[in-house]
Specification:
With 129 residues, the protein is mainly alpha-helical. It has five helices and two strands, in the order ββααααα. α2 packs antiparallel against α4 and α2 packs parallel to α5. The longest helix has 27 residues.
């Protein structure tokens, strides 16, 4: 095994390589654009599920419980979409800044849990209502 720039090399599966890379990754507190892309993608996916289930629930006669969202819906689809995209971007940026202090995987779990509640609520209304 040889050392190349502080990383142990010499085999396809050498745990020392991954341990060293993980240490470096934890020590690096810079904001990484790829992390933002992943967070935005997960948040957007959850928001799209929320939009679809909300539309289905509204078509069945239910009303939007969030007064801000209800107002955007009343203003029209363009306003609703713009508000949703701005909200998605804002949440993604806030979660991205948290990657300096927390692992990306934990942030993604939090993100998915946070945005799964409205989706599950809407599904319950659609199925049971």
């Amino acid at each position: 095994m040889e050392r190349d720039g502080g990383i142990v090399t010499g085999g396809f599966w050498n745990p020392d390589i991954y341990v060293e890379l993980e240490k470096r990754s934890r020590a690096d507190k810079r904001l990484k654009p790829l992390n933002l892309a992943v967070i935005f993608s997960v948040t957007l996916l959850m928001r799209v599920l929320d939009w679809v289930t909300t539309a289905l629930a509204l078509s069945k006669g239910f009303v939007e419980a969030n007064p801000f969202q209800a107002r955007l819906i009343e203003m029209g689809p363009a306003y609703y979409l713009a508000g949703q995209l701005l909200g998605t971007a804002a949440v993604s940026l806030l979660l991205w800044t948290a990657t300096r202090h927390m692992e990306l995987s934990r942030i993604l779990v939090f993100d998915a849990l946070l945005f799964s509640y409205p989706v599950l609520n809407n599904l319950a209304l659609i199925i049971l209502g």
